[in-house]
Specification:
The protein is an alpha/beta fold. The chain contains 2 helices and 6 strands; from the N terminus they run βααβββββ. The protein has one domain: 3-Layer(aba) Sandwich (Mannitol-specific EII, Chain A), CATH 3.40.930.10. Strand 2 and strand 3 form a beta hairpin.
Length: 110
């Protein structure tokens, strides 16, 4: 089942990012280059709007940023590993080391 949503090109180890904003922009560009999203600006906007509702670092060290928008071709999961950790704007939880980055269209959001 997971093979339908993730492959080795969707596992990113230590991307060159220093901020949460750089992470989001870099991941949107990455999945766009994998032909998983149609429009980078629309997807990034949806991702940022979702993150404004509540920080997606749900447990210490692990974040689940996601967007539901018709700017995607299909459901995807991108796994990002940050060996040094990244400030995810959630001081109570500390830095993030693993990011499960999801995207889906508005119809298939369950």
């Amino acid at each position: 089942m997971w093979r339908n949503y993730i492959n080795k090109n969707l596992i990113v180890i230590d991307p060159p990012v220093k901020t949460k904003s750089e992470l989001f922009t870099g991941m949107v560009n990455h999945v766009y280059n994998q032909d998983l999203i149609i429009n980078q600006k629309t997807f990034l906007k949806a991702l940022l709007e979702r993150e404004e509702m509540v920080n997606t670092e749900l447990i210490p060290g692990i974040a689940l940023p996601h967007a539901r928008t018709n700017a995607t071709h299909k459901l995807f999961v991108c796994i990002v590993i940050l060996k040094q950790g990244l400030d995810y704007d959630n001081p109570e939880m500390g830095p993030v080391n693993i990011v499960f980055f999801f995207g889906c269209d508005e119809i298939h959001n369950k």
